[in-house]
Amino acid sequence: MKFFIDTANLAEIQEAYDLGVLDGVTTNPSLMAKEGITGDDNVRAHYKAICDIVDDKVSAEVISTNFEGMVKEGESLAAIDDKIVVKVPMIKDGVKAIKYFSQNGIRTNCTLVFSPGQAILAAKAGATYLSPFIGRLDDISIDGLELIQQIVHIYNVYGFETEVLAASVRHTMHLIKCAEIGADVVTCPLNVITGLLNHPLTDSGLAKFLADHAKASGK
Ligand code: E4P
């Protein structure tokens, strides 16, 4: 299972990378805006800064919504660094663009996926990654994890090579359930990754070990 961090914040990316468990980064226009990154040159420089931290797989999302624009933008984003994965929305021209990129050696992440039908289309077009959004489905009382289960099943049945990248992951149980289901990748905020560390018995156990050691050493 791969862990991606879902942020454009360089300090958080560095912290997750330093933990030694980070496989990639996903960003989106909202996350870039949250960091105050605007303007073409600044956005490109920020993607480069992210690429300089991690080993591979940095999703950079296109803003265009027509085929020609997505191809131009995607090729330009991919030229920033070999680590870039072009993130393309699940719309008609997006599917065409994914097909184009897959035929031209550019990795893609198909985003804003909310149904199994969309997942099948993206896989047939040759998407490298598929991002179904769990939390946003949960927000409207539809079971996001059930969608992950359906897509993993369909992809296994047909041997699709597209990797299921569970997105919009809001808490540790989302991540753990995705692991049980067999999602290839999970992308989530830093607090979800570090949240996996927490257990009160670990804390109390460590406190006792250290206290016993101090007592035995006469400290
Ligand atoms: C996916 O790549 C998106 O950036 C992200 O996971 C969306 O998450 P949100 O629904 O918490 O905004």
TrEMBL record:
Coiled-coil segments: none
Pathway(s) annotated for this protein in UniProt: Carbohydrate degradation; pentose phosphate pathway; D-glyceraldehyde 3-phosphate and beta-D-fructose 6-phosphate from D-ribose 5-phosphate and D-xylulose 5-phosphate (non-oxidative stage): step 2/3
Alphabetized Gene3D superfamilies for the sequence: Aldolase class I
UniProt-listed HAMAP family: Transaldolase_3b
Species name: Algoriphagus sediminis
UniProt catalytic activity: D-sedoheptulose 7-phosphate + D-glyceraldehyde 3-phosphate = D-erythrose 4-phosphate + beta-D-fructose 6-phosphate
Gene name as annotated: fsa
EC number(s) reported in the record: 2.2.1.2
Compartment(s) of residence: Cytoplasm
Iron-sulfur listed as a keyword: no
One Pfam family per UniProt: TAL_FSA
Catalytic residues, chain numbering: 87
Function statement: Transaldolase is important for the balance of metabolites in the pentose-phosphate pathway.
First-level EC class: transferase
Keyword Coiled coil attributed: no
Keywords: Cytoplasm, Pentose shunt, Schiff base, Transferase
Protein name: Probable transaldolase
UniProt family annotation: Belongs to the transaldolase family. Type 3B subfamily.
